[in-house]
């Protein structure tokens, strides 16, 4: 499998050359449009984790962007458009900014960023004439109160994920929830999104507890969970533990025998191995042949970002950042994301409208928006920040 | 993809009727063959009683189906088995397997009844197989995720759609090479030539449109949009297309919109939307074209549509995720 991918690519390239010469004789020669995309990655160290058995892939995101470049060149070779990716992975926010400026100096104006919100803000300010795709930060403020005018978000916000989950809780009539929150800022942010979602959709929080790992030292985390979750009765335990420190030890260990959902258990996510319908199986296979592992939500966000650029370029036949952004924010370019709906970017905050899969490790449980959650214009806008909720100006 | 209407074989009654009668208990009724993508089987529907009479195990993830011109051989894209299986219609036995290349999804048979054009979804290839010698005649590089296939009635063109590249690829069958590519809307799924081969209809699942092209110039004549009351436009995702032999109607399966669109094939006006099952995929006419069958992937059934009254008559439960459908007389 791994051997055949480069071979197939070589064949494609060979054919593209043959085609170009064939076309050259038929039509007046047209200048090839070179579209160079920068991929900027910085992921801070999550710190020591109690549950560290299955690590996250180090190249999450990058593999998605690389596959999307191959996919996009398949159309590009017929339209005389060539997409290339310049990727950088660094280990500090300062280095990321320097790397971005270096790419900008080389003429790049389109960037896919896989970095925390603070880095994205800095990049957005430093590259005002560029178009950035956020494929790394689920931060809610970037989509509600502190919009970044030159950024489109292909990774779903925490609010979208939490809303997707809350709709499912309502569907299943799990109306009482216990919320368990970790200690990091990210965990607090995820918990805030869950609080917003349960309030929006009418789920009651019976209690909220912070996991401090100050349990009885004679017991393991697993053994401590039953007592830790002994509160007023609930239908579901919601957990906010983004880096996967303790949450994996909650399922099957709760005081009441109830499901666990959130960052562990039943999880809302932008993408997962178990997404297979609407042509997703083909994307999954292509990705696995290239990367040798499963495609995750960051890979999908980066893939979607590059595909958004390429779809807009193939329609406009140019790569000017403002023109691309304008088209992507209009309703003139339905995007294909293998999710069963036409995807598009919300004009009020630049976030990608997309269905959110709810998964457990080996099965797709459901996909939100759930049927019956209506919206005056687009049901997908029942997930995340809708137009009236956004207080910042965009773009 | 052309219908076997004009090929109703002379030999049929003597050779096959006996076997069919034994197998199904109905001597004269036509039979619909439905591939069940997630059951690795075919469901056979007797079109007189509208009941499933047989379920046949086949290769993994069966999708595209087509018949030889004499209706004696059924070709089955067994996608996850990476082969095209050939079933003897009379005995229901797999008589051979063709070297289709990886992940065959849809295919089309050349009017010479020999050359099979197969789209290899995972390899961005179209494979051409001689079904008599079982030899691969050629492989043509096309866009990413090749899907729909059709051969023009005069045999000159084989047209393939690539779902991620968003193009129609025109293959010159005299040289088995790519001659031209046409950009259409997002995720083109299916192509169908009209009876005289002057027009090509192509559906775009994410674009939500059907494009009609002039075959001589390979230029777009018209792009159709669909609006169904009470159905969000995002759910309108055209897939299968069938054109009636009299040139009057085009039928388009609209996927998760759960409707089949009826179009005036001359004026390109959308006449009606017929409610069928969930996520309608592919379509097939009965031999006299009085009925149209539609496979509904998610609800696991086949809708039977009366093409005169334009009413849905019945829904027949089949296996899991029915995908392709063809009809033998």
UniProtKB/TrEMBL annotation, chain B:
Gene3D superfamilies: YVTN repeat-like/Quinoprotein amine dehydrogenase. The keyword Acetylation does not apply. Residues 31-105 form the YNCE-like beta-propeller domain. Residues 1-29 form the signal peptide. Pfam families: YNCE. InterPro entries: Host-pathogen_enzymatic-act, N2O_reductase_N, PQQ_b_propeller, WD40/YVTN_repeat-like_dom_sf, YNCE-like_beta-prop, YVTN_b-propeller_repeat. SUPFAM superfamilies: Nitrous oxide reductase, N-terminal domain. It comes from the Bacteria. Keywords: Signal. This is YVTN family beta-propeller repeat protein.
